[in-house]
Backbone:
């Protein structure tokens, strides 16, 4: 039994009162006992309000430091991490849970229709962790790329690009790839992974040229970079071209939208590095205008997508044409062998099994960052529980609420919804662009160029715009359709808060369906418990096929039941 209410009301040092060990009915306030000679049994009865009793009980159960505010003791809650329409679900930075008291979620009851109109926000409470530029040893700061001992010509290229400080993944990955080891580099979106593999790749090509006198032959590149979409290939080529021009290396981009004649012309001159999606490379191999026998370095960017059912067959066909070596540290890759680098923001759990025919797990160095598969702490993310009929009105409200139009990406799950939403916004006076996979490569390239140039600030797209494309100007991401899979959410949210972004940016999510709530629960729980996101399915094509089959079976059963 704790101290009596008389002591709680009169004692000015509640911390001492709460920490005292007393017998039932005994007063612990020595100052109160010294100031009265009234026997304990004759003390007046003081009725304490029920609200005060509840506050006293709450304070007795808390183990947080206390502070005096007027006449009420409160615990220091710390910085808010999650705010909610219902204040009881607010979560603070120093708040923790254990397995016997799991967190109560603001989105727990969102499958019920009465939850419509509810919302919660994951607050941006920390700076971008990708800018942490730490060395491999604890507390070792890296001030510039010079400390990574890159070729001087590459340092000049970085200077021309206005880049002087490496990010966390660049500091971790560059030494490993420079050694010649096969590696799997995984880091959060927007953390600078492109330079993390381009710089050591070009450095090794320059070293090999000096030590072995290796020369470039027409149609026989020494490096290949595979990416899933043409937009990303063009982006990687742009960065590689600037660095290559400074280092004296030739870089070519094979575009699936171009004719075979154009590809032949591009490969007619000696080429050091080829950047492409798998399709054009396989076409060039069939036409014998490209050979891979001189390839000593191969990079698979956005590896989660490249090892998905959508691309895995083509990716493996190309990798089998180069001899991936053991990846032991050495200055020069032996003739006839190739170094393999896998890069991505999310990684399938069975990546090493898929690549078992190409490289063994023991010969693959893993390089990752602390925030891989976590919700980024520097991007505000709001979740709104809506009815499907309210989405159109809400999207107009959000876009017109901005004092001035800011670069915004609006994601839909299908091309049909993408087309409809773009038309709906135009009808309501909002100029938009649209981007989806059913458009031709030339049209998609023009759309992305116009959006990046700022000609139109609103882009309505499907997930084709979420994989790897650099969007440093984007300040707002809206999930008009909430993604079906965790990997999609990570990539979509990663369009804001990137290294070099203009402003921090924020994400707004429309949560409509019951299956959306399951994913929201996982995201909210991971933030509250400060743990990584649970294992998720990155095989998008297979998952979409399974869902379509389930919906077809349910419709068939409903028809038979009717």
Residues:
């Amino acid at each position: 039994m704790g101290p009596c209410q008389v002591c709680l009301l009169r004692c000015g040092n509640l911390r001492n009162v709460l920490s005292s060990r007393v017998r039932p009915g005994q007063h612990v306030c020595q100052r109160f006992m010294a100031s009265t000679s009234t026997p304990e049994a004759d003390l007046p009865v003081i009725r304490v309000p029920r609200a005060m009793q509840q506050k006293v009980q709450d304070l007795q159960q808390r183990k947080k430091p206390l502070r005096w505010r007027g006449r009420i003791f409160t615990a220091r809650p710390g910085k808010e991490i999650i705010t909610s329409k219902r204040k009881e679900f607010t979560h603070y930075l120093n708040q923790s849970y254990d397995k016997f008291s799991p967190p109560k979620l603001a989105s727990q009851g969102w499958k019920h229709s009465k939850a419509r109109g509810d919302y919660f926000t994951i607050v941006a409470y920390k700076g971008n962790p990708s800018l942490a530029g730490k060395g491999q040893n604890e507390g070792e700061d890296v001030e510039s790329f010079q400390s990574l001992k890159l070729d001087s010509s590459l340092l000049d290229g970085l200077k021309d690009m206005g880049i002087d400080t490496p990010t966390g993944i660049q500091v971790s990955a560059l030494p490993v790839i420079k050694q010649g080891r096969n590696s799997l580099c995984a880091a959060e979106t927007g953390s600078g992974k492109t330079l993390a593999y381009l710089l050591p790749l070009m450095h090794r090509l320059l070293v090999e040229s000096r030590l072995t006198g290796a020369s470039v032959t027409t149609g026989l590149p020494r490096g290949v970079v595979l990416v899933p979409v043409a937009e990303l290939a063009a982006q990687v080529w742009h960065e590689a071209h600037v660095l290559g021009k400074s280092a004296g290396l030739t870089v070519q981009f094979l575009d699936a939208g171009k004719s075979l004649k154009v590809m032949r012309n591009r490969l007619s001159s000696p080429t050091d590095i080829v950047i492409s999606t798998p399709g054009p490379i396989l076409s060039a191999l069939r036409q014998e205008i490209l050979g891979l026998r001189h390839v000593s370095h191969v990079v698979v960017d956005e590896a989660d997508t490249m090892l998905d059912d959508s691309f895995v067959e083509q990716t493996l066909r190309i990798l089998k044409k180069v001899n991936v070596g053991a990846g032991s540290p050495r200055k020069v890759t032996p003739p006839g062998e190739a170094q393999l680098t896998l890069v991505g923001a999310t990684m399938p759990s069975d990546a090493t099994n898929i690549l078992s025919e190409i490289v063994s797990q023991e010969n693959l160095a893993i390089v990752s960052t602390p925030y891989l598969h976590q919700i980024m702490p520097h991007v505000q993310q709001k979740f709104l529980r809506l009815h499907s009929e309210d989405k159109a009105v809400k999207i107009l409200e959000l876009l017109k609420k901005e004092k001035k139009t800011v670069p915004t990406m609006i994601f839909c799950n299908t091309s049909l919804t993408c087309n409809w939403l773009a038309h709906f916004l135009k009808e309501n006076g909002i100029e938009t662009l649209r981007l989806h996979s059913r458009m031709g490569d030339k049209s998609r390239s023009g759309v992305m160029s116009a959006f990046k140039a700022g000609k139109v600030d609103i882009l309505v797209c499907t997930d084709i715009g979420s994989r790897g494309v650099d969007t440093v100007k984007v300040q707002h991401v809206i999930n008009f359709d909430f993604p079906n899979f965790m990997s999609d959410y990570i990539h979509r949210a990663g369009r804001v808060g990137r290294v070099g972004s203009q402003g921090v940016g924020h994400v707004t999510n429309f949560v409509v369906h019951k299956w959306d709530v399951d994913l929201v629960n996982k995201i909210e729980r991971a933030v509250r418990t400060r743990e990584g996101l649970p294992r998720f399915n990155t095989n998008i094509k297979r998952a979409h096929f399974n869902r379509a089959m389930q919906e077809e079976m349910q419709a068939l059963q409903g028809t038979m039941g009717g």
Q: What stands out?
A: The chain has a mean pLDDT of 81. The two ends are 65 Å apart (CA to CA). Residues 540-561 form the longest helix (22 residues).
